[in-house]
Specification:
Layout (H helix, E strand, L loop, with lengths): L3 E8 L4 E9 L3 E10 L15 H20 L5 E5 L1 H4 L4 H12 L3 E3 L2 H15 L5 E6 L4 E7 L2 E8 L3 H8 L7 H15 L12 E4 L1 H14 L10 E3 H12 L3 H5 L12 H15 L3 E5 L3 H13 L9 H12 L4 H20 L7 H12 L12 H11 L7 H11 L4 H8 L8 H19 L8 E9 L2 E8 L4 H18 L3 E7 L3
Parallel strand pairs: 1-4, 4-5, 6-9, 9-11, 13-14
Antiparallel strand pairs: 1-2, 2-3, 6-7, 7-8, 10-11, 12-13
Helix pairs in contact: 1-3, 4-11, 6-10, 8-10, 13-14, 13-18, 14-16, 15-16, 16-18, 18-19
């Protein structure tokens, strides 16, 4: 599949969204625009479950607005899907036909099972977590899935959500303690009907806007030093503290709360109660967040049908770094030799005992090599600073936030002082030994980068020999290695710190 632009219109019970995407086989899938309208279609379902004329007109006006945007962006590849509000409407067929006649937009009505599946599909293709329970609370329905080793085991869709719970249990905009208890018992009794949830002892992964707001609230409370919520994790204690704080606030106080979207101020409290009930049933100690859900699942599924190798849910991190490197002008063909040489250097350092071999460390090192000093794309003289900022603040599929900072510290390594400066906000995240390991691995990477100075693959291999405190490094070349010699001697000091002794370099040119 070649480059293309596509759009998803997601007609939910609380919001209607238009999301524009681009896909490039070299750089991957990117969200380029996200426009929402808080239509609250669930509120227009009458006692007989017929959507009122006012609600249908609201939907039509939003779709006509979105059609103008699609025309301006010259996007003709569109998939419009509807979930609980239209699914539960007795006049759903009439609504879909009217939208087609009046807007030219064909709406596909998803079942609850389809909605759950595509949420699971996005999570497993963008998170590394092997097994978990997912929950996506919309305005009118709640989807749950259980996957094991990335394979879907069970799924279910409940016909209640944030808007319907508010309508059913809360008078006015502020939830009382009694309201909260009723919502908890209601959610718990429904969840208990699914035997696969009981004491699953797995992480719970939240999808969608309400989960996203929970993550932002926790980050605000902790004065979190990096951005993004995809793959953010909260402990059960963190979750309980946020729940206690939020459910004690009035509607007016919630509207002023940093990190909470004002259009969710009246529905966040029942959502938190539902999350809490699920964690209790599952026996989960961890709540994770996925920014990727139904819409991304639909797009990834479409791409994979045309190109089955475009995404690999069993190797999310490596695929993500491949796309990211290409975006900053370091495609695979430019970095392959450097990555290979880095792996050889790691094994040599382990062989003489300076590092203790660890498969996860090696994998992280190779991905850091692929992204080493990508900040050069912005400014060569400030490559290290830009690299650290980009990697630590950008969502990278397949790794959690701690691993993302670890990657950023290694891939941005320039010297000990800059490493310490970048590390300062994260002193509580890692132990002293972990910081030392990252610093040493970064130093090794910085030296190996010098061995690829001319970008001509001159250095074929290396070998290390230790005698007492001294290390002899043999560097085997296949041509004039003047540039590599110069840079390697400049960067040799980084190796000296790793070995705490003198390193001597011996360049050996291959004959013929």
């Amino acid at each position: 599949m070649t480059y293309f632009k596509t759009a998803i219109i997601d007609i939910g019970s609380n919001t209607i969204r238009l999301v524009l995407y681009t896909y490039d086989p070299l750089r991957g899938l990117k969200e380029v625009e996200n426009i929402k309208s808080v239509a609250r279609l669930r509120n227009y379902l009458q006692v007989d479950n017929v959507m009122s004329e006012e609600g249908v007109q609201e939907l039509e006006q939003v779709l006509l607005f979105f059609k103008d945007i699609l025309n301006d962006y010259h996007i003709v590849d569109l998939r419009a899907i509807a979930t609980a509000a239209i699914r539960q409407a007795q006049n759903s067929s009439e609504i879909i036909e009217r939208m087609w006649n009046n807007t030219g937009i064909k709406i596909e009505l998803l079942s609850g099972e389809q909605e759950a599946y595509f949420g699971y599909f996005a999570v497993t293709h963008t998170l590394e977590t092997p097994s978990a329970i997912t929950i996506d609370i919309g305005g009118g329905s709640t989807e749950l899935t259980y996957f094991k080793d990335k394979e879907l085991q069970c799924s279910h869709s409940f016909p209640f959500g944030s808007v319907s719970l508010k309508q059913q249990f809360i008078q006015g905009d502020t939830m009382t303690n009694e309201d909260g208890e009723k919502i908890y018992e209601f959610a718990k009794s429904n969840f208990e009907t699914l035997l696969w949830l009981k004491d699953a002892q797995l992480p719970v992964i939240g999808i969608g806007g309400s989960a996203r707001n929970m993550a932002k609230l926790d980050q605000r409370k902790k004065d979190y030093p990096i951005s993004g919520i995809h793959q953010y994790e909260m402990t059960k204690e963190d979750f309980t503290n946020i729940s206690r704080e939020v459910t004690s606030l009035t509607y007016e106080e919630l509207k002023q709360l940093d990190g909470l979207s004002s259009d969710r101020a009246d529905i966040i409290t029942p959502v938190i109660i539902v999350f809490q009930a699920l964690m209790d049933i599952v026996g989960s100690e961890t709540f994770q967040f996925s920014r990727k859900g139904l819409r991304e699942g639909l797009v990834i599924d479409r791409i994979l049908k045309d190109n089955p190798t475009a995404f690999n849910k069993y190797n999310v991190f490596e695929r993500s770094t491949k796309f990211l490197a290409a975006e900053f002008d370091k495609p695979l063909e430019k970095t392959a030799h450097f990555v290979q040489l880095t792996g050889i250097a790691y094994f040599e350092v382990c062989k003489i005992g300076a590092f203790l071999y660890n498969a996860e460390d090696l994998h992280m090192l190779k991905q850091a090599a692929r992204l080493f000093h990508i900040g050069e794309y912005i400014e060569v003289d400030a490559a290290s600073q830009h690299t650290f900022y980009l990697l630590s603040n950008r969502s990278i599929d397949g790794i959690n936030h701690g691993q993302r900072v670890r990657l950023a510290l290694i891939a941005s390594y320039k010297n000990k002082d800059d490493f310490s400066r970048y590390s300062e906000p994260f002193m509580e995240w890692f132990s002293k030994d972990e910081f030392k390991k990252m610093r040493d691995i970064g130093a090794l990477l910085k030296f190996v980068y010098a061995l690829d100075a001319s970008k001509r693959n001159i250095v074929e291999s290396i070998a290390m020999e230790q005698s007492g405190d001294n290390v002899k490094l043999k560097i085997f070349t296949k041509g004039n290695a003047m540039a590599e010699m110069y840079q390697a001697n400049r960067q040799k000091k980084h190796l000296n710190r790793i070995f705490k002794g003198e390193v001597t370099l011996h360049f050996i040119e291959k004959e013929g």
